UniProtKB/TrEMBL annotation:
Gene3D superfamilies: Alpha carbonic anhydrase. The keyword Aminoacyl-tRNA synthetase does not apply. Residues 1-20 form the signal peptide. It holds the Pfam family Carb_anhydrase. The lineage of its organism: Eukaryota, Fungi, Dikarya, Ascomycota, Pezizomycotina. It comes from Thermothelomyces thermophilus (strain ATCC 42464 / BCRC 31852 / DSM 1799) (Sporotrichum thermophile). Residues 40-308 form the Alpha-carbonic anhydrase domain. This is carbonic anhydrase. Its EC number is 4.2.1.1. PROSITE patterns: ALPHA_CA_2. It comes from the Eukaryota. It catalyses: hydrogencarbonate + H(+) = CO2 + H2O. The keyword Membrane does not apply. InterPro entries: Alpha_CA_prokaryot-like, CA_dom, CA_dom_sf, Carbonic_anhydrase_a-class.
Length: 318
């Protein structure tokens, strides 16, 4: 029975390839075999926005409205288990010929060429990384300029994501040394402004983002050196929790690793990225294990409607 249900769910997921941009390239959302870039059918505003994702494809997207371990969330210091970057095995292959860079309509995504994350005895393979603007997770209640999601999948089809905040770089800072390109909160507290130097990888990727301004288009980035970001992630820590995809179908069981590191993007490059991405952050969800905010909201709305009707009745009677 359980197996049959599982198989049915897998089959259902496989047919909904345009719904899972956070999980694009994984078993939840395989790439089109002919290489075309499929544009997402959901969005971030109005009736295709996150308040209504469950209704866009019911019951497949049900977890978006009823799940109790949904992402993103507010990452409050001291609440989450910390995993030191030095305690995980993380590798991401450089891409000397550049990488495919796609506009999925709901995000812009770099298709990677090998990489892995090993946590304990679990091994995950890197599929892609993509960007959210502004950040989806909050750092102690504060959104950051952007957030990068590196999406990994295990052989058992479990998903792990590394989330890394991206701040606006302080362009008045001295030319960055390799070490100081990214600020690690654990090794040095950034100034109160959160100033950080630009990350070369991000500047390189977004130098061509204007070539994929139209959803459904793709281009090739200049050569990408991944060690810069990998070194920074390893030198910092991950706040870990079990959450969900932040896009439909909002599947749970996602192993989140939200880094304490900061990447940086220059103001001019941020504007270029913003002009293409627009806005693609799901609203912060309730604490893991607590009721889905949409359920809380539905009950509150129903109570308000009942009160309004009772009030109208009382008014008519009076
Ligand atoms: Zn994402």
């Amino acid at each position: 029975m359980g197996l049959t249900l599982g198989a049915l769910l897998l089959a259902a997921w496989a047919t909904r390839t345009a719904y899972a941009s956070c999980a694009h390239g994984t078993f939840l959302s395989p790439r089109a075999e002919d290489g075309t870039v499929e544009v997402g059918k959901f969005g971030y505003t109005g009736t295709i926005g996150p308040l209504n994702w469950a209704a866009l494809d019911s019951p497949a997207n049900g977890a978006c409205a009823t799940g109790t371990r949904q992402s993103p969330i507010d990452m409050v210091d001291g609440v989450f288990e910390l995993l030191q970057g030095s305690d995980v095995e993380l590798t991401v292959n450089d891409m000397p010929e550049g990488a495919e860079f796609e506009n999925l309509g709901t995000t812009v995504e770099v298709i990677t060429q090998g990489g892995s994350l090993k946590v304990g005895d679990k091994q995950f393979e890197l599929q892609q990384f993509h960007f959210h603007l502004p950040s989806e997770h909050l750092d102690n209640g504060t959104s950051q300029a952007m957030e990068m999601h590196m999406v990994f999948q295990s052989e058992a089809q479990e998903i792990a994501v590394i989330g890394t905040y991206i701040n606006i770089a302080d362009t008045s800072a001295a030319a960055p040394s390799k070490r100081s390109r990214v600020f690690g909160r654990q090794e040095a507290k950034p100034p109160a402004t959160g100033a950080v130097a630009a990350t070369t990888l991000l500047e390189t990727i977004f130098s061509v983002v204007d070539k994929i301004a139209v959803p459904g288009t793709k281009t090739t980035t200049p050569p990408l050196v991944m060690s810069e970001v990998v070194d920074v992630l390893k030198a910092n820590a991950f706040q870990i929790y079990s959450g969900s995809l932040t896009t439909p179908p909002c599947s749970e069981g996602v192993s989140w690793h939200v880094s304490t590191a900061r990447l940086g993007i220059t103001p001019a490059t941020f504007v270029k990225a913003r002009d293409v991405i627009g806005f693609n952050a799901r609203f912060p969800q309730n604490k893991p294990g607590e009721p889905n905010l949409l359920m809380v909201s539905a009950l509150g709305s129903a109570a308000a409607a009942v009160a309004a009707i009772a009030g109208a009745g009382a008014g008519a009677a009076a």
